[in-house]
Amino acid sequence: MSKQYKKLNPADISRIIEMAWEDRTPFEAIESQYHLAEPEVIKLMRSNMRASSFRMWRKRVTGRNTKHLKMRPEGVSRAYCPTQYKHK
């Protein structure tokens, strides 16, 4: 595992897990914010989730074109749905 992974605090780990579960957040967004490439995110997820939850997540993200910028349709540049972060 990278040295960067070991420097993360619990709040960062929680946010990375949240971002990894989000359908519209690409791995590249996680990498730009936390300097963790996709394989490192997978290691983080594996070590911080129950085995069944990790398998469910892997099944969900494998082949999902919204999780990789290169696979996204042209014109989709956002990392989240416009209504995802509603402000009061």
What is the element layout, followed by pairings?
Layout: H1 3-6, H2 10-21, H3 27-34, H4 38-48, H5 51-61
Helix pairs in contact: 2-4
Structural class: mainly alpha
Overall strand count:
0
Helix content: 40-55%
Low-confidence stretches: none
Average pLDDT, all residues:
80
Q: Give the ordered list of helices and strands.
A: HHHHH
Q: Total number of helical segments?
A: 5
Largest sheet entry: none
* Share in β-strands: under 5%
Question: How many domains comprise the coordinates?
Answer: 1
Alpha-carbon distance between the two ends = 40 Å
Short characterization:
With 88 residues, the protein is mainly α. It has helices spanning 3-6, 10-21, 27-34, 38-48, 51-61.
Please describe what this structure looks like:
With 88 residues, this protein is mainly alpha-helical. The protein has one domain. The protein is globular and about 35 Å long. The protein starts with a helix and ends in a 27-residue tail after the last helix. The model has no long low-confidence stretch (mean pLDDT 80).
Provide key terms for this protein:
about 90 residues, mainly alpha
